[in-house]
């Protein structure tokens, strides 16, 4: 025992003499002694802290959040395999059968388009063009053509820049004033492309954290705008104001529950829906908007230039002052046969978009001749309200003939200048996305506002391919007999919810009542022939 | 290579539609740990579009030294107060440093500069979570970790704390070190009462719509925390 302790003592002595010989060891010893301060508990805690600090220092860096979830960690071998197997895709995929036949079926017009164009293939003379958006016959009007040529000689063609960077001409500003004056709003702003108008207005005002309540049947451009805006979006049933109120109430209840601060809230809907031609009840919508304190973004791409006494749109039709709509979007491409789109509203709304509207800031402004054409179009509409009367008459004539058919169903409003025709299934009572929910819908459970699909989506049973093919046959049948119609063309696979295939008729005021009757009879016959088979 | 690859590439789920609901189930606990910042593809895109100057400055020149400089200046100023003992002086320096660094790095969320460039993608994240895009154990984070510990050890070395002051200091230090841990990255500890979630910025509202909410979205499972 003593031998062991003696050797241990000797070892310890040797160790301490060795340590003392290291230069600076005295400092260390003094430091440790003064830190220790005769308190072992404190020293233990401090040593734990030091150990933890050293442990932290020795850890290696982890990967950043950005690449975290979406990054797949492959090994070298797997990477090599993938690289070897890779074959580059062709720059332009060869068309499949459906696409090739679609392309071959597109009619080619020689010369100017109009109510009775000349086609490159048989039949060369068409008796009615019910496919182009030429609602008030402004396409090809001589007055507009002359003014456009004059403008082309004066300004040249392109505008060479975005509106904020040397791209604004006096004719643009004149058009903005004309539109504001025509509609009765404080100001208006022009965008050079109709599609990118609404998808720029929405992200200009709606940001992450704001609330958007949108209709389930809004068009693709609005869906893109909502997606870009990063706002929280809630959907209400198509053209159903009761469902809108329910969703607004639930949003408010939820906000109160979370005690979240008040953010900007928007209702986004269309005047006449491009997807199916339904029309909203504007006075009731405005009433709801004021009661619940939401802002309204109304997309009147189809209804501007086509409804109302002089074509001012839904505000004129329902006799509602346009100032009550916070942002009124319209399309000069659809309504005035010119190009581009506009947003009308108060001075603040417009001034904000001049800095914050993505398409206004980053896209080139429209050519001068299109702006002048649009201004002329507005003048013509203002001075000849008989055009609109004629258009409405044609719409009524067409609807009266089409409503008699039992092989199709028509979701469009009776005053809507675009008429969608869906194939009617033999079994009755199946709702499709275009129809507003009827009175019986209120007794059903409400649809989930966070999903764009309504509750009936599980009952949708149409086959898109089959219906598209059938409708294409109808189109070709009608074309053989001299009436140019078209299917509603969709971006399949891109929209949030797939629209049901339909034929979209666009009525025009340029055809006389008899011509409209004849053309619609041809269409009806084609429908009966193809769909009865 | 003719043999087929056995590697399955998972589909990149770009969820265009509704963001996932985050209603919490009922819980009886007083303290809850909640996840923020969903990391959806849109948030990732918005964060990576431009560099975040509000978080990059910690890697800039002099950003590390400034901590030491400010602590020394603070100590000098506090020492000039008449009647100041070493114990109180070191405690005050320690506590002020911890309080200010906690406020700056772990309390305030969002970014003060260039807010519109990122479209609100950083609104839920504190400065600590923004540094280095959320990578852990980076040099800047290690420095910010070591500094309070060193300050504390220096203060206990140079004074002789009575047990109360010692415990105050060490508990403050531990409290400030907790949010720096990588396990608490993007988590918030909330004191819950009455089922409220009380987040500062409204993200996706949770909809306890009862029968119409699919039940798979109603409960948060362990999978959400991975």
From TrEMBL, chain A:
Database matches in InterPro entries: Aminotransferase_I/II_large, AON_synthase_class-II, PyrdxlP-dep_Trfase, PyrdxlP-dep_Trfase_major, PyrdxlP-dep_Trfase_small
Domain Aminotransferase class I/classII large: 126-415
GO BP, sorted A to Z: ceramide biosynthetic process; sphingosine biosynthetic process
Keyword Lipid metabolism applies: yes
UniProt-recorded Gene Ontology molecular function terms: pyridoxal phosphate binding; serine C-palmitoyltransferase activity
Electron transport found in the keyword field: no
PANTHER family: CLASS II AMINOTRANSFERASE/8-AMINO-7-OXONONANOATE SYNTHASE, SERINE PALMITOYLTRANSFERASE 1
Family: Belongs to the class-II pyridoxal-phosphate-dependent aminotransferase family.
Protein name as annotated: serine C-palmitoyltransferase
Automatic annotation (TrEMBL), chain B:
Compositionally biased tracts (Polar residues): 200-218
Regions that span the bilayer: 62-78, 90-108, 161-178
Keyword hit for Ribosomal protein: no
Classification via InterPro entries: ORMDL
Keywords: Membrane, Transmembrane, Transmembrane helix
Cellular localization per UniProt: Membrane
Major localisation: membrane
GO cellular-component term (any): endoplasmic reticulum membrane
Membrane topology type: Multi-pass membrane protein
Pfam annotation, one family: ORMDL
Residue span of region Disordered: 200-226
Entry-linked PANTHER family: ORMDL PROTEINS (PTHR12665)
This protein's name: Protein ORM1
Organism whose genome encodes this protein: Favolaschia claudopus
């Amino acid at each position: 025992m003593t031998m062991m302790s003696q050797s241990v003592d000797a070892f310890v002595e040797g160790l301490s003499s060795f340590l003392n010989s290291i230069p600076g060891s005295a400092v260390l010893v003094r430091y440790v002694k003064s830190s220790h301060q005769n308190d072992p508990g404190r020293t233990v805690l401090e040593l734990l802290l030091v150990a933890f600090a050293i442990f932290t220092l020795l850890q290696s860096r982890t990967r950043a959040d950005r690449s975290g979830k979406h990054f797949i960690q492959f090994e070298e071998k797997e990477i090599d395999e993938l690289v070897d197997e890779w074959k580059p895709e062709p720059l332009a995929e060869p068309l499949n059968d459906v696409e090739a036949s679609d392309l071959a079926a597109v009619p080619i017009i020689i010369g100017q388009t109009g109510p009775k164009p000349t086609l490159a293939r048989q039949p060369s003379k068409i008796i009615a063009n019910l496919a182009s958006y030429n609602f008030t016959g402004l396409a090809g009007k001589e007055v507009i053509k002359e003014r456009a040529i004059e403008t082309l000689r004066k300004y040249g063609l392109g505008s060479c820049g975005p509106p904020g960077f040397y791209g604004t001409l006096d004719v643009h500003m004149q058009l903005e004033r004309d539109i504001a004056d025509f509609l009765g709003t404080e100001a208006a702003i022009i965008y050079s492309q109709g599609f990118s108008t609404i998808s720029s207005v929405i992200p200009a005002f709606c940001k992450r954290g704001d609330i958007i309540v949108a209709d389930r049947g809004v068009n693709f451009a609005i869906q893109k705008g909502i997606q870009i805006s990063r706002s929280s979006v809630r959907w209400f049933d198509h053209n159903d104001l009761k469902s809108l109120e329910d969703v607004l109430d639930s949003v408010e209840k939820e906000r109160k529950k979370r005690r979240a601060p008040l953010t900007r809230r928007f209702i986004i809907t269309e005047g006449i829906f491009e997807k199916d031609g339904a029309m909203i009840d504007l006075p009731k919508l405005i009433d709801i908007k004021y009661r619940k304190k939401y802002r309204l973004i109304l997309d009147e791409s189809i209804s501007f230039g086509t409804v109302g006494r002089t074509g001012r749109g839904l505000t004129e039709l329902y006799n509602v002052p346009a100032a009550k709509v916070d942002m009124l979007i319209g399309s000069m491409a659809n309504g005035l046969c010119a190009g581009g789109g506009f947003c009308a509203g108060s001075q603040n709304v417009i001034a904000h978009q001049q800095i914050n509207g993505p398409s206004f800031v980053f896209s080139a402004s429209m050519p001068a001749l299109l702006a002048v054409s649009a201004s002329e179009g507005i003048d013509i509409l203002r001075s000849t309200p008989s055009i609109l009367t004629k258009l409405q008459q044609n719409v009524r004539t067409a609807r009266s003939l089409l409503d008699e058919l039992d092989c199709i169903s028509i979701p469009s409003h009776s005053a809507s200048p675009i008429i969608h025709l869906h194939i009617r299934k033999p079994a009755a009572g199946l709702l499709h996305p275009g129809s507003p929910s009827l009175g019986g819908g209120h007794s059903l459970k409400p649809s989930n506002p966070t999903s764009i699909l309504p509750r009936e989506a599980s009952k949708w049973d149409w086959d898109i391919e089959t219906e598209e093919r059938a409708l294409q046959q109808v189109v070709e049948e009608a074309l053989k007999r001299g009436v140019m119609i078209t299917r509603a063309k969709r971006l399949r696979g891109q929209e949030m919810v797939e629209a049901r295939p339909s034929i979209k008729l666009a009525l025009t005021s340029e055809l006389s009542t008899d011509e409209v009757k004849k053309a619609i009879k041809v269409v009806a016959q084609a429908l009966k022939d193809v769909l009865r088979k | 290579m003719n043999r087929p690859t056995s590697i399955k590439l998972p589909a990149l789920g770009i969820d265009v539609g509704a963001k996932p609901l985050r209603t919490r189930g009922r819980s009886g606990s007083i303290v809850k740990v909640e996840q923020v910042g969903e990391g959806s593809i849109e948030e990732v895109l918005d964060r990576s579009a431009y560099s975040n100057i509000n978080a990059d400055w910690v890697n800039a020149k002099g950003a590390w030294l400034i901590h030491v400089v400010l602590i020394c200046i603070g100590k000098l100023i506090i020492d000039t107060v008449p009647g100041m003992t070493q114990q109180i002086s070191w405690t005050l320096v320690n506590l002020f440093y911890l309080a200010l660094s906690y406020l700056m790095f772990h309390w305030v969320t969002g970014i003060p500069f260039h807010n519109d460039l990122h479209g609100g993608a950083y609104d839920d994240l504190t400065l600590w979570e923004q540094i280095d895009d959320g990578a852990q154990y980076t040099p800047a984070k290690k420095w910010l970790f070591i500094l309070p510990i060193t300050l504390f050890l220096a203060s206990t070395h140079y004074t002789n704390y009575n047990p109360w002051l010692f415990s105050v200091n060490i508990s403050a230090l531990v409290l400030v070190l907790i949010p720096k841990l990588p396990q608490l990255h993007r988590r918030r500890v909330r004191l819950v009462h009455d089922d409220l979630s009380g987040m500062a910025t409204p993200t996706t509202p949770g909809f306890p719509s009862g029968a119409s909410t699919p039940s798979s979205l109603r409960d948060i499972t362990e999978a959400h925390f991975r």
